[in-house]
Amino acid sequence: MRELLQHTIDLCHQAGEAILDVYAGGDDMGIKTKFDDSPVTAADLAAHHILEPGLAALLDRVPVLSEEGEIPDTETRHQWQRYWIIDPLDGTKEFIRRSGEFTVNVALIENGVAILGVVYVPVTGVTYSGCRGLGAEKIAQGKRQTINTRSIAAAQQQGAIKVVASRQHGAEEVTQLLEQLDQRLGHTETLNMGSSLKLCLVAEGCADFYPRLAPTCEWDTAAAQAVVEAAGGTVLGPDFKPLLYNQTESLLNPNFYVLGDPNYDWAALLEHTTVKQADS
After folding, report:
1. Is the dihedral of CA 59, 60, 61, 64 positive or negative?
2. What domains are there in the chain, each with its CATH number?
3. What is the pTM of this model?
């Protein structure tokens, strides 16, 4: 698994180079609109064309599910026990805005669980990786660092519980939730960020809680969830059960919570919020 993880990291770096070529190429990003009205760029497709064949070559007869590839029907997908799921460019809107907050996401799913994941940030060159049994790492400027989530007790000792949220999605619902958390936990600080970097902040102990109360697809979250869980955290659906993959006809995730400290009684804290009741 360690060798497989390194090969996956290498492929993500290659995809990142292709993305940066488009990013640095001027105003022509080759932007088009997909059937769901979401944007796709030449960078999304360039990364896809590197990752899909590269991953297919790593594991014999293990299929690759890509946001930018052909999506198999439900019956076919549900026969898969093991498969790759990729978002060649997570945060396409951030890419178009040139915010730098976009990533390459690759995960290996086994029986519905994300067991290996790589999140690469092309603009900064930072890589987050996680693998079941191997732990989680952050690679920056050529240096590897083991990363771990932090406990709520540690967060409170260090000043405040930090909550990470999307700039674009579910802002009203998250604000409502945070107001109630402030009443129950004391002062919280909110960090705003794009793409799967929000989960990675929890994985490295820079944030403690990420409530996602707006739609996402499975390829948006799988890689970063593998990193979070390898770092000691957890990702739970609105029923407070682990977020799993390829379980329904849809590739949409339910609302979910990314928790740095799985030993804290989040269910007791969140079950009384109006947002949680609405989800139920």
Report:
1. positive
2. 2-147 (3.30.540.10), 152-279 (3.40.190.80)
3. 0.93
